[in-house]
Amino acid sequence: MSDNQLSRLMGGSPLWVLVRLVILSVVIGVILSALGLDPLNILSSLERLVRGLFSFGFEAIDKLWRYFILGAVIVVPLWLIMRIAQRGR
User: Fold this and answer.
1) What's phi and psi for 33, nearest 5 deg?
2) d(CA 65, CA 58)
């Protein structure tokens, strides 16, 4: 295979393509590591990631629900009192 055919196959100079692939692999590796993925046990890591995101989502909903209830304890009675007071006019 000539150098021109190799360049065309790889999408550019083989050395430049190799450098780009190494840099991209390191960047993606850092991102995946930050997400908690382990290259030696990728399926288990992916399962842990999905469970964590799922759990995080439900925790956020639980906190939102608690804030709603806390606010509603004050807002709903005040709204009811104001509606009754306005009706009397």
Assistant:
1) -65, -40
2) 10
